[in-house]
Inverse folding.
C-alpha cells in the first residue's frame, strides 16, 4: 500500500485480495467478474477486482496459493492487459499496477510443478525480498515507536525506557512485524493510562519459545549442583562418542524436516497420513497439516496424479467425498467406478 500511496496512481483505487483465503471458483469470479446466470446464484452481473482497480493498484497477497488454471488466466492479464468475466465471450482492457506477495518460495514451488515458470518469470520483473525482522534489528525501534504513537493526538508521544528497548531489540520476533504490532497494542491496552513504559509493561508470555531464548542468565546466582557420582569407567560403560554425535545429528535433521513448510515436506507428511489412516477427507487434511483449502486441493491432485491415492464419491454431494490410499498391488481395473483422478 505504501508503494501505491507514493506513486503517480495514489489518487486511484487500491484493491487488495488474499488469494489463499478464497476457493478457486470464487476467486476467478472475484478477480475477473461474472455475467448474470454464469453459475448458480449469479443473479446479476458483477464487476471484478481488476476492473475496480482500473487506473490504480491491485495487490494479490499469497499469490503462491492460486491454482494452475488461475495462473494461466493471470499470465494472460500480465501479457495482454485483458480480462474476461466468467460466462462472458468478450474481453476487456484493464490498466492497473499489479503487486503480488507470498511467504512461499516460488522457485521451489515451480520446480515441483505447482507454479507456472512462465508466470514466475513474468512476476519477477521487479522483486523485493523482505528479510525477517530479526535480521533487521535497526527497524525494530522505529516500527515500535510508530505503533506506540499510532492513534494518539498530534504532539503526544510515548516514552520507552532503555531496558525496554534492549529487550525488544534482543527478542527474535518470530511473527515479524505483525507480532511486534500486536505486542505493542497489548502493552497499550493493559496500560492505557501511561505514556512512559518500562520492561515490566512488556508481556511476552504468549511467546514462550523466544522468551526462553531471551531469558536472563541466572547461572551466576544459582547454587551449584552437586556432582553426580558415576561408576568407575570401563570399556563397557564408556559411550561411543562418534555414535552419540551421529545420533544427535540425525535427530537434528529429523527435527528440521518434520517442521518443514515446503511443498515437498508437506506432501511427504500427507502421504504418511494416508499410510497411517488409509482414508481422509479434505477438511481433515486442512486441519491436520494447517494448510489452506487451495493448497490441500493441489496436494491431493498431485497424489492422485501420481496414482498414490484416489477420490471416492459416494454421492453427488461434495461433502461426502473422501480420499483413499491406493494399495501397491491395486490395478486400474479394480478401481471403484465412482472414483476419479482429480480432487
Amino acid at each position: 500500500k505504501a508503494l501505491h500511496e507514493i506513486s503517480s496512481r495514489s489518487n486511484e483505487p487500491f484493491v487488495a485480495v488474499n488469494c489463499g483465503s478464497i476457493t478457486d471458483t470464487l476467486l476467478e469470479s472475484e478477480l475477473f467478474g461474472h455475467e448474470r446466470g454464469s453459475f448458480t446464484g449469479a443473479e446479476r452481473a458483477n464487476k471484478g477486482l481488476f476492473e475496480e482497480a482500473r487506473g490504480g493498484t491491485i495487490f494479490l497477497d499469497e499469490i503462491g496459493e492460486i491454482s494452475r488454471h488461475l495462473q494461466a488466466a493471470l499470465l494472460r492479464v500480465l501479457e495482454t492487459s485483458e480480462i474476461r468475466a466468467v460466462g462472458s465471450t468478450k474481453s476487456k482492457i484493464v490498466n492497473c499496477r499489479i503487486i503480488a506477495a507470498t511467504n512461499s518460495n516460488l522457485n521451489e514451488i515451480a520446480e515441483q510443478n505447482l507454479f507456472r515458470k512462465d508466470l514466475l518469470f513474468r512476476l519477477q520483473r521487479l522483486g523485493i525480498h523482505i528479510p525477517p525482522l530479526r535480521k533487521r534489528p535497526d527497524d525494530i525501534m522505529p516500527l515500535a515507536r510508530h505503533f506506540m504513537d499510532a492513534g494518539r493526538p498530534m504532539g503526544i508521544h510515548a516514552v520507552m525506557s532503555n531496558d525496554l528497548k534492549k529487550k525488544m531489540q534482543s527478542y527474535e520476533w518470530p511473527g515479524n512485524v505483525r507480532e511486534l504490532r500486536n505486542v505493542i497494542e497489548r502493552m497499550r491496552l493493559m496500560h492505557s493510562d501511561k505514556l512512559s513504559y518500562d520492561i515490566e509493561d512488556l508481556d511476552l508470555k504468549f511467546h514462550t519459545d523466544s522468551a526462553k531464548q531471551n531469558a536472563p542468565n541466572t547461572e551466576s546466582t544459582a547454587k551449584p549442583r552437586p556432582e553426580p557420582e558415576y561408576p568407575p569407567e570401563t570399556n563397557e560403560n564408556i559411550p561411543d562418542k562418534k555414535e552419540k554425535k551421529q545420533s544427535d545429528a540425525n535427530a537434528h535433521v529429523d527435527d528440521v524436516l518434520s517442521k518443514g513448510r515446503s511443498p515437498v515436506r508437506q506432501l511427504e507428511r500427507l502421504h504418511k497420513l494416508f499410510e497411517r489412516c488409509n482414508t481422509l477427507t479434505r477438511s481433515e487434511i486442512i486441519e491436520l497439516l494447517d494448510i489452506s483449502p487451495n493448497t490441500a486441493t493441489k496436494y491431493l491432485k498431485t497424489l492422485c496424479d501420481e496414482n498414490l491415492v484416489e477420490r471416492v464419491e459416494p454421492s453427488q454431494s461434495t461433502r461426502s467425498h473422501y480420499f483413499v490410499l491406493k494399495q501397491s498391488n491395486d490395478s486400474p481395473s479394480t478401481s471403484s467406478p465412482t472414483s476419479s483422478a482429480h480432487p
Remarks:
- The chain is about 40% helix and 10% strand.
- The first helix runs from residue 2 to 5.
- The chain has three domains: 2-123, 133-213, 260-334.
- Residues 2-123 form a domain with the Rossmann fold fold (CATH 3.40.50.300).
